[in-house]
Amino acid sequence: MCVCDVGCTKPVNVLAVILGVIGGIILIGLALLLIWKLLVTIHDRREFARFEKERANARWDMVCHPHVILGVSFSAVAKAVQMLAAN
């Protein structure tokens, strides 16, 4: 008596199992990528909103900034030297 004659089931379709496992891995990977992208997008939007809020609340006083004053005065001196050299 053969062991297989007693309670055999249908043979397993190996190709279907392999393709199912590969497809499952790919779907899980895509789902994880989409979740990661969603979380990064939410974080970036919050950070950008905070940046925009800080930029709107910033008080830039360009007249009193020493580098701006020095830059203007140096360019004025340079123009004066050029005008004198041209004459």
Explain what you see:
The protein has one domain (11-86). The chain contains three helices and no strands. It has helices spanning 3-7, 14-57, 66-86. The longest helix is centred in the middle third of the chain and has 44 residues, at 14-57. The termini are far apart. The relative contact order is 0.04. The model has no long low-confidence stretch (mean pLDDT 81).
Short characterization:
The protein has one domain.
Structural class: mainly alpha
For the residues shown, what is the average pLDDT?
A: 81
The helix/strand series, from N terminus to C terminus, equals HHH
Task: Report, as a whole number of angstroms, the end-to-end distance.
Answer: 121 Å
Unreliable spans are none
Helix content: over 70%
Shape: elongated
Residue share in β-strands: under 5%
Number of strands: 0
Number of domains: 1
The main sheet comes to: none
Number of helices: 3
Radius of gyration: 36 Å
